[in-house]
Fold these 3 entries.
Entry 1:
Amino acid sequence: MINISDRQKEVLRCLIYNDDYIPVRKISTKLNVSEKTIYRDLKSMEGLLNSYKIKLSTRKGKGVKLAASEQNKNILLFELGQTRKDIEMTGSLRWKNILLYLLWISPNSSSIHKLSNMFFVGETSIVNDFKNIEKKLHNTSLKLIKDHEGTSIIGDEYNIRCMINDLIMKQYINRARSQVRYDTRLNDENYNQLCAYFSEELIISVENTLVQIEKELGYELGYVYFINIITHILIAIERIKEDKHNELENIEVREVDLHMYRIIIEAFQDLERQLNISLPDSEIRHIFLHISSAGVEGITESKAPNNDIKTNDNIKDKFFEELINEVSKALNNNFVTNSQLKDSLYMHISSMINRINFNIKITCPLLQDTMDEFPEMFSLIRDIVSKLCEKYYSDLTINDDEICYIVLYFQAALEQHREKYNIVVVCSTGVGTSYLLKGRIQQNYPNLHVVDVLPVKQLQDYDFSEIDLVISTIRIDNLLDEDIPVAYTSALFDKDDVNTVTKILENLNEERNDIYGR
C-alpha cells in the first residue's frame, strides 16, 4: 500500500476526481488545513507521482491538476485504497474492481496483502474475491495465476482487452442521466462510462477517426458496433502507450476489401501523428476486421459493405431460415412473414458469423437485464442457436452477448401491436433494443402508436406536428423546438417506466374522457 498520510491520500483523490485545474485554496478548505500544508504535501508526493508516470501541472491563477492518462490515474486511485464509504457502496462489486485492476496492470502482478490494503478488507475476503474472478474467467483463455511473485491475469492480449471492455461497458447502463452533446454519436451513458477510464481528448480523437472512416466508406456503423470498436481502440491505445501489451495474434483473412483497408490505414496514420504513437500492423488489421464484420444502419443496400469475407452464403441462409422456423415453432408465432424482423436479423446474423470467424467480440450492455427479464426466451434462443451451430458451423461458439442481441430482435417482434396513437421513440442503444422498447410500449399501452424510432441526430429535422408524446432513453431537453412532453425510460421499459409514462399520459390527457393506461 502507498505509504503516505490519510490527508495526502485525500489531496490525491481531489486531484484524480477533477480533470481541470483546482485551486489549492479549495483543497485546503475542504481538508481544513492551510494552503502551505497542501503545497508541502504536493512537493513531497512528486516522486511518488513520477513512479506512476503522473506529473503535477500548475497554472498561475488556476491551480493544480494531474497530467496523466486515465489508466494511470485509475491505477493510482486503486492503490490509494477506497474509502470506507466507497466499500459500503460497492462491496458486492469489489471483485470486479480487483479484476479490472489486474487486467489493466497485466502481465504484472499484485499481492494479496496489497489488494487487502487497497480495498480495506481482510486477506480472506480477497481470497474469496479470487474465486469470483476465477468463475468470471471460466471458459475464457484468461487465467488467474497465483505464485510466489503475486497474483496476475495471464492470457492473450485480445482477450484481456475484451474483458476490460466487458467490465467497462456493463456498468451503470440502465438510464442516461446527463445532457446530450451535439458533437458526438455516443450516448451520454456510454460517453460517461468511457470518461471514467480515458481522457475526453482521447475519446474525441478516436471517435472523430471512426466517423471519418464512416464518411469515406459512405455508411454508418450500427451503434452497438460503433461503441464497441471505439472502446477496443481506446483500450489498445492506453495499453500500447503504457507498454503493457503483447502483440496481437495475426489472423489470416482470405479476401481483403482493399478500398476499406486503405481508408482505415490513412485515418489511423493521422491519429498516430496526432497522439504521437505508433500502432503495429497487427492493430490496424484487427481494426479492419472489427469494421468489416460490423453491422450497419440507415443505408441503402447498394452502399452496404461486403460482409461475406469468409462465409458461405448458402450455409448462412440455411442457418438463418432454420433459426426463424425453429423459433416460430417453439413460440407458436409466425415470424416467417415478419419482413422487418427478417431484414434486420439477417444483417445481424451475417455480421455475427463473420465476427466469430475472426474472433471479434462485442459486448451487449443489456445482457444481465435481458437474462433476468426474459429467462425462458434467452434459454430457448441459446439452445436453438447452439444446435444450429453444431449443424452448420461446428467450429464456432456463439457467446451470450451475441445471443442477447438475437433475443432482443425476437422479443421486439413478439411485442409488436397495431393500435394507433402518435408517439416517437428515441433510443441510441441499437436497432434491436429500439424495437424492443417500441414493442413493450405498445404492449403496456394498446392505444399508443409508435410512428418512428429515431436516433438523436434526426430530432432537429423531424416534423413533430402530428406527434403527441416522445419516449426517450437519453436526455433530449434542448433538442426539441416543439412543446412536446417527453417521458424518460430505460431501454427495457420496466415497471418504473410504466408508472412514469402513465403519470405523463394522465397529465397530458386530463381534458379527454378516455385516459390511456396499461
Entry 2:
Amino acid sequence: MRETDGSATPHSFAEKTLVSVARERLVDNTVVTCRTLRCSGNVLAVRTTDGLKFPNPSREYELRADGVRYWAYDDVVEVTFIIYRDALAKVANVELSAGDDCLAAFDKNIVRIHQLSRARYSQRSERDHLFSYTLTASFV
C-alpha cells in the first residue's frame, strides 16, 4: 500500500516512521490516541483512534423515528446518529412533547449527547461496518 505526503510523491512502507503516540483526554473525558506518521521529516498522517468529530451543527427532528437525527464524521466517513425522544428526555431531565421541544433539549445538552455518541460508537467491533447508530433510553 502506498501513501503520499500531499505532494503526490509515493513513499514505501519501509521509509515511514511512527514518530509518536500520544494520549489526550478531551474536555468531555474521552481519551483520544494520536499516531503521527513521518517520512523524510514530513508528517504524512495524524490518525486518531477515536476520530469521531461533530463539525456539522445540523440536526433535525424526525417524526417517524420520534427523535433527533444528527451527524458525525470518522475521518471521511459520515456517521448518522438518532437519539430517541425518551432518551433525550432522560438526558435533559424534562418531559418532551414535540419536535421543537426535542430540538431545544438537544441544543441545551449537546456536550452530553456527543459524549454518549462517542461511547455508543466506541462499542462497535472491528467487523462492524454500520454508519448509523441510535441512542435509546436504556443506553442513556
Entry 3:
Amino acid sequence: MFRLVFFTNKMFKSVACALTEKSFLGQQTFFKLFRLERSNFSSKFASVFMTNNYYMSKRKPQHKNVILSPENYIRQRSRNLPIYECQISNTWRDEKIAHITIARKHVSGNITFCIYLVDTGCLGVRETAYTYNEPQEAYETYHKEIEKVGIISEKAPYDLVHNIIYAAVEYAEEYGFEPHKDFRLITKYFLEEDTEDIPLIEIECGGEDGKPQYTENGLDSPARIKQIIKHLEKTVGEGNYHYVIAPNDDEYYDEDDDCDDEELEDEIERIKEEELYGLSIEDLKERFFDLFNEEKIEDPTALPENEYVQLTAITEVLIEELTDDEIITDYYSELSEDLTIDAVENNQTPNSLFQGIQDIDGDTLENLFNEFLEVLSNKKKAQKAISELESKVGNAPLLDYLNLLCINPTNKKKYNKALEECYRKYPDYFLFKMLWHEYRFIEQGVEESLEKFKSLLNDNNLTITHYEHAEYIVRYANTCYNIFDEFNFEKVVALEEFLVDDERPVEYKTMTLLATLNIIKIYEMATYLIDEQLG
C-alpha cells in the first residue's frame, strides 16, 4: 500500500484498474487510494483518479473569490446546493455493503459528489471520499469506470441512502465501531441534517438474525481482522456475531478486460514480477545505474514517472537480495514494542492535543486544527488561522504549539527559545515533552533526554491522539531508530512494514516519512553500489 504514495497522477487509472478486480476488495482499495493521494496532490489530481485520460488534461475550472478549501466548502456550504442525484450499488441488500454516491449541482453546472462505502453488517461507514466542483462529464466518467470493475449502481431516492448511512452508523456505534474519520469531519456535512424532516425508512442491519456480521473481504490485515474479532467477542460474546469470508466474485471481471485476471497489487509489484525477478545482481545493478546516472543524480523524483517507478522497483529488488529476513523481523518486533499504543481519534476529548480547552466539541476543534494544517506553508494564512482559533478557545497549549510550528526550524535561535518557553509553561504536554527531549538529544547530545523520549509512551495513563502518535513515530525514526544518520536497509524495510501494517488512520506525517524513505533508499543504494565498485 505504501508504495502508492510515490505514484503520479498519470498512473492512477492503471493502478485503480489493477487493484479493483474484485468486488468489495476493489471498492475499499479504491477508496484508500483516493484518500491517500488526496493528501499529497491537489484536489484536481485526486479527482483525476476517478476519471479518464481526457479529464487529466483538463484544467480545473477557474473561480473568482473562492476562499474556502474543498473540505471547508463541503462542511459549510454544500447543503445549499440542490441534490443532483444519488446512486447505490445494486447488491447492497445481499452483500451488506453499499457503495453510495451523492451528487450536488453548482449553479455553473459543475458537480460536487461524495462517496460512502457503508457496511450495514457491522462496521458502518468504512471509507468515504469526495471530489469538488468538477464538470458533469467527470462525474459520469466516474460511474463508467467503477462499472468496469464490477460496481453496478442504480439511482436511488435521497431519503433511502440517507437512512442507510445513518442506520449503519448507529448500528456500528452500538458495538463500539466509529465511522471513518473523514465522514465525521467532512462528508457527513454533505448529507442533509439528520432530523425529522427526513422520512424514516427501516433499514435492516447486521446478519439475518440481527446479530452483527463481520465480512472478511481479503483486504483487512491479519492484525485488523484479529482486532475486529476480539472487539466483537468483548462486546457481544463468542457465538453472538457472524464471521463471513467473502467469495472472490469472479463474475465481476473478465479475462479479456484491460485488467488481467491475475491479482495485481500495484505497478511496482508488476514490474518486479514481470521484468526484474530472475535477473542477475549484475543486470539489476546495470539497470539501476542506467536510470540513476550522473545527469539525474541530483533528484530521482525529477525523472519521468515511468523511470522513477522503474528505479523504485529495481531498488526494492536489490534490497530484497541484500537483506536478511530474520534481522528485519527483529527490528519489526522492536518497533512494535516501542511504538504500539491505543491512540484515540483527534476529536475525542479530553485528550492531550486539546488539553485545557473546554466548552467546544471535539469535531469543531479538529476542524479548526485541520484548517490550520492546510495553510501551514503560508505564514500569513497560518497566523490568521491561529487568530481565529484563539478567538474560539482562548489561551491554551494548542495555541503555543501552533505558533511554534510557524517558526522555521532553521532559525535555531528563535525556534529553540520558543520551544524552551513552551516546555517551561507546559511541562506535562505530550507534544512539548516530545519536541523538548528530541531537541536536547539531537542539538545538545543529552543522553538522558533520549531515554526520556523513548519512555514517553510508557505512561499507563497517557491518552494521545493519532496526530501525536504520528508525530512521535516520525521523530522516533530520527532519534531512537537513527534511520537517517546510520542507514540500514533492514531497519528501513522493518519501518516501512510497521507503518503499512499499523491500523492507525492514515496521517500525513507518516505518509511523508514513507515517501522520504523511498528517496533515501535510492540514494543509499547508489552509495552502496558505488562503494562496492570502489572496493
